[in-house]
Amino acid sequence: MATSMDAVAREAPVSKRTLYNHFPSKEALFTAVVTDAYAPFTKPHDACQGVCDPREALRAYVQRMRSHWGHPDVMPLLRLIVAEGATAPGLMDSYLAAGKGPAIIELTRIFEYVEDPLGMPAETRALQFLGMIKEGLFWPGVLGIPSGREPETVIEQAISRILGARS
Questions:
Q1: Are 6 and 16 in contact (CB under 8 A)?
Q2: Alpha-helical regions (H) of 49-165
Q3: Contact assessment for residue 108 and residue 123, using Cβ atoms and an 8 Å cutoff
């Protein structure tokens, strides 16, 4: 990552020593930033405690995800990760551990309550579901283009596709 700890300390405004007292490295600082940005989305929600209505759990998950995307810090952070990830592998590792990873684990837990007739693992179904949602709603936002799709329609079609017409 091109930004130096000196530049971060100047912007904070704190001394570099103070910054290093809280964060021993740029990777630790970045992990804290990702953790903070993802905290409202990745905090445990217990969508399926014992009995799970997977359709309602998926709707709630997508609603939290869409709120997360709408936070003013999230899209710039994601753009930074995409731009810098190839040259700073630690950045991607931090993002996966503190942000995306916990979000996928929660979604996977929802799919653990739903038997799949094809026997696909819950995590595979979770990733496929995310793909359907993100292609219709997330990527147009990242690229700054209109999706041309009604969000509720995208969500309901993805739920029906991944769970079947009646689950």
A1: yes
A2: 54-70, 74-84, 89-95, 101-111, 122-133, 139-143, 151-163
A3: yes
